Amino acid sequence: MVKLTRLSLSLISSFLILFYTSTTAQTTIPRRSRTRAYIEVSCQITEYQDLCIRSLTAYIHSSNATILSPRQLVHYALLASQHRAQHTTTFLLQVSKPLVKAKKEREYQAVKDCLEQIDMCVDQLSMSIKELRQLGREETTRENVDWHIGNVETWVGSALTDATTCLDEFPAGVRMSKMKATVKAKVLNVAQVTENALALFHHFVVRHRAPGPPQNP
Known about the structure:
Blueprint: H1 2-42, H2 49-63, H3 70-101, H4 105-134, H5 142-167, H6 178-209
């Protein structure tokens, strides 16, 4: 009788585990599908739509997050942009060291200047993310909303300018080494992802300021 009871408990436990796993999987897949669909529709207003979808989807998947509102979309777009900028900063640090040893002064200076610009880009995107969080607070007044919106626009715009300035170190039509071509590609990616984030933010602001019922934060 004891053995039968233990067997029954074991079977019940196994069933509950399978039921919970199945239910969780069923709710997770539709949630991811809705998030993917939301990203695809939202990215239609950006300049680089495919990149917008890829970068946001990859970041959301890695962080297991869900997007339910325009503000959340902008938040993750800025985080994705900051992540790309941080990754590029690490890469620039790595490629700059061999240039010093090889005494390639001109290439080193170009990478060094670019590193400074992208490093500032990371800081500016971090500030924009902090400002965006302020817009989600209930006690935020209309004056404060306009203030924070202006600050986000300033920080993201400055980050985009810094990335573009870095690209000036690698003009189009000029033959360059494989290293320079890789640097340019990575920085261009940062600039494009940041430009997309700024476009999504501008779209969010239009909805946020629209008359009628308040929009989801």
